[in-house]
Amino acid sequence: MENKDFNFEEIKRRLENYEQTPNPEMWQKIEKQIRPHHIYLKGAIAITSLLLLAFVSVLIFTPSEKADTTLLTQEKKTEKIIIKSQENISKNQEIKTKNQEIISKKEIIETNKKNEQTLTVVQAEEKIEKQEVEIVEQKQEIVQKTQPKQEIKQKEQTPIVEKEIAEQKHSPKAPETEEIENRFQLIIPNAFTPTSGDENSIFKPASTELKDYKMHIYSSNGTLVFVSNNIEQGWDGTFKGNLQPMGVYVYVVKFTTPSGETRQQKGDLMLIR
Fold this sequence. Notes:
Layout: H1 2-14, H2 24-61, H3 65-156, H4 162-170, H5 175-182, E1 191-192, E2 211-218, E3 224-228, E4 238-239, E5 242-243, E6 247-256, E7 262-271
Parallel strand pairs: 1-7
Antiparallel strand pairs: 2-3, 2-6, 4-5, 6-7
């Protein structure tokens, strides 16, 4: 009602300077004509507000097709992610299984290698023992063959004239010396350990006076790995600065005996690490 009074008073104020002053009854009629229009306007505004509120509520509470589509897409993406994660888990399990198999295979291979190395060392030790026995037997055989002759000579020995002594001294060779020289052989080991740090870390024959000495050592595939022209210079188990693998090698020794006879000895040697 304050708005109505305000509007009416405004109109009345504007018409104050009008030349003809209207009757109070006229003002009442004007007021009656304006009041229904004002009521209609208020009703229209209220109805419009209700319609807008209804439309907004419909928009808010009614799910759209786009929202449904978005939800479906997100659900599908989530399912795909779950499937991929499960696949990755299964792949990781397969990789772990394969790694365990590889580790077990490596352990088996290492165990086999250790067993082979143990067998090789045992075989080398047996071979060394056999060669040592052979060397001892050869020495005993030489001693047995030379001892009877010396005993016979001592029993049959008679006073010798100085001339005969001089002739024997100037004779080129005595029969016993010839027989011993014909059996002349170098004492050569058949195994050595380069990393031991002791006397057995260098492969070489036992020291003796020789002429034109030369030793060649070959690997199992025929590669020449060492050459020496000095009996005191042995092989340390290296080739071009690298320690060679454990295994069987072949040596060939050529030399001239003190009596001038050219000889050659060859055999196998075991490099043990």
